[in-house]
Amino acid sequence: MTRRVLQRNKGKLITSTLLMTIMLTTGIFTLLMFKNWLHNQQQRLKEQHFAKEQIKRRFNQTQKDAVHTVHRLVPVLAAVLSRDADLDAIVHTLKEQKSKKKIAENQLEGSSGSISQDSMSGDSQQVPSKAELWQQLKQESLVHLMVIVYTMCMLLLLTRLKLNILARRQYLGSAIKLAVENESERSQTMNRWASNAWSYAVGLITGKQSSPDSKVNLETDNSKQSSPTEDRAAVVACINEEAFLSLSWWLLNRGWPLAQPLIEKHVRLQFGHLSPRDRLSITDFETLLSHAIHDINAELLAPGPQSPLLQCFLPDSPAAQRLVLEEALDDRTALRILFEDDSVLRQLLRETTACLQSTATLIVLESLVNESFHYIMQQTEQKVSKNARKGPQNGPPEAYPVALYAISVKEVCSDVLRHNATDDYNNEFLQRLDAVPELDDLSASVYSNFGF
Ligand SMILES: *[C@@H]1O[C@H](CO)[C@@H](O)[C@H](O)[C@H]1NC(C)=O
Ligand SMILES: *[C@@H]1O[C@H](CO)[C@@H](O)[C@H](O)[C@H]1NC(C)=O
Ligand SMILES: *[C@@H]1O[C@H](CO)[C@@H](O)[C@H](O)[C@H]1NC(C)=O
Ligand SMILES: *[C@@H]1O[C@H](CO)[C@@H](O)[C@H](O)[C@H]1NC(C)=O
């Protein structure tokens, strides 16, 4: 009985191996064949209630894992981004100048009739004037806020994409195994054939360049136990997946500064003409900020090779990638294994790149930025009216000095990057971003589709 089953499978195996060899010579046809095959497997999976539930639960968990990962990265982000913009130092200098001025005014009182308003600002060439400091605070706090917004949106998006790509890779591996297992009376050989064909098919679909012959060889001696090879392959795949995740180092350290000049330019274009004493209503401020964001999006999220967006997400050259891996993976052995065989990593990166270059992703990123805009406007409005109540009341109450906006935006920056040591997952801004429905739609399509 068992013998006959084996015999029959052997027959099947030989035909399938033969078939495969033939198919290798007809590239595009093979690709379509496997796409069909995988599609059928997927369809069959969809009919299996058990697998479906499992897959759904896995999807939910993956989205949670993604936002938890970003929550944990918030302190890192805060440290990295604040290194660049030291708003506190500007505020400190401003306060210092104010107290110096007060002392000077007290000393001058009575001794001279004419007190020059600008006596303090003109006393030294090196020290920036009060007006210059306010200009600096205005520009830098807005740039800092925009950098935080774009970096946070990109980080959440990238983490979602990566984890969904990995989760699908894992669940499909096991789910297809399960389905094929059931179908062929739990025949081990068929099972292995399926998983080999699966990895082979993935390679084809994503254009993996590894030699197809090795796969065919695996097919032919299928009847033998090859667990050491499988173990080794599992280790290599695991290290590759780890390297894939660790490449987020790039966005956190090298990626976001590439978007900064663009942000600086558009903030200056919208807000540059305003002096700290000018008054703006909340609506005016909102209009200027939305123009700035619109123009940043137009350049940053434009599809095409001239957009710096892809370079923000991923290392832009093999040399840069190697540098990041050496930086992020400190295990020398793992690094050596990875450099020997990085085919899984290259395949994952190809898929991620395809996702990142798709219009769907650009739209999701824009939705995230829009959501951020609403959130930061809400926060800024609260801060501005609160800070205005503290200060002296003059001028129309619905318009506030630009200086007040600068101080308020600085406060919003630190709120947005706030992290709570007792409760890791308590960042309100991130929770708002994570609830953007387009993000779930994109995640679901990455999680469930082939060949994005
Ligand atoms: C996934 O999460 C959603 C909402 O968070 C819930 O309604 C749904 O039942 C969950 N599905 C599974 C399979 O856990
Ligand atoms: C395996 O197949 C049988 C019918 O042949 C079906 O009843 C059962 O649900 C399947 N099991 C799984 C896990 O799909
Ligand atoms: C973002 O907001 C702008 C302005 O309100 C709007 O034109 C655009 O369609 C929005 N984009 C998305 C993806 O929702
Ligand atoms: C941190 O989170 C805990 C629990 O959610 C909360 O009770 C506490 O007030 C938070 N601390 C700060 C500083 O926000």
UniProtKB/TrEMBL annotation:
Matching Pfam families: Peroxin-3
Membrane topology listed for this record: Single-pass membrane protein
| UniProt keyword Mitochondrion present | no
Compositional bias segments (type: Low complexity): 110-124
Taxonomic lineage of the native organism: Eukaryota, Fungi, Dikarya, Ascomycota, Saccharomycotina
Compartments where found: Peroxisome membrane
Q: Which PANTHER family match?
A: PEROXISOMAL BIOGENESIS FACTOR 3
Q: What is this protein called?
A: Peroxin-3
Keyword line: Membrane, Peroxisome, Transmembrane, Transmembrane helix
What's a single GO CC term here?
Answer: peroxisomal membrane
